[in-house]
Design goal:
The protein has one domain: Rossmann fold, CATH 3.40.50.2300. It is 46% helix and 16% strand. The chain contains 6 helices and 5 strands. It has a 5-stranded parallel β-sheet, sandwiched between helices. The longest helix is centred in the N-terminal third of the chain and has 13 residues. It is globular, with a radius of gyration of 17 Å. About 6% of the residues have low confidence.
């Protein structure tokens, strides 16, 4: 059976179906350069992005924005990433949101606590490219 739709419209539909336009990622990190790099990479892949520069701001945005996934730094200016994770997992509104730590802080005990508290993964910023993180996000979100 052949389609009666013009080729350019078919191409647009194929692109629209593969774009993650409804998926929202919250970045909780105080490193503005890092946030801008990841916002650009995620946006290019079709994700919506929201950012919070402190733990408390991230918690507020998580509850208000209902992201599909959170990228969380361990070292924040107000509270630790593990404390943010603990609060996220104890709140009915946010406890089911998958969290991936993306941090330069690699102290073994903090990594273990993060994973024990429910983080999906703990990735070291200095060992990963944005495309690798996006692949991990898609894997977690089953895309």
């Amino acid at each position: 059976m052949t389609s009666t739709l013009p080729n350019n419209l078919l191409q647009f539909i194929k692109i629209a179906v593969t774009v993650n336009i409804d998926m929202k990622i919250l970045l909780i990190d105080d490193d503005e350069d890092f946030v801008h790099i990841f916002e650009a990479a995620l946006t290019k892949e079709g994700f919506q992005t929201v950012a919070g520069g402190t733990g408390e701001e991230g918690l507020v945005k998580a509850a208000a924005e209902k992201p599909d996934l959170i990228l969380l730094d361990q070292v924040l200016p107000d509270i630790s990433g593990n404390d943010v994770l603990k609060k996220l997992k104890s709140d009915e509104q946010t406890k089911m949101i998958p969290v991936i730590f993306l941090s330069n802080f690699s102290q073994e005990e903090l990594v273990k606590v993060a994973l024990d508290q429910g983080a999906i993964d703990y990735v070291f910023k200095y060992q990963v490219e944005p495309k690798d993180v996006i692949a991990k996000i898609k894997q977690v979100l089953k895309m």
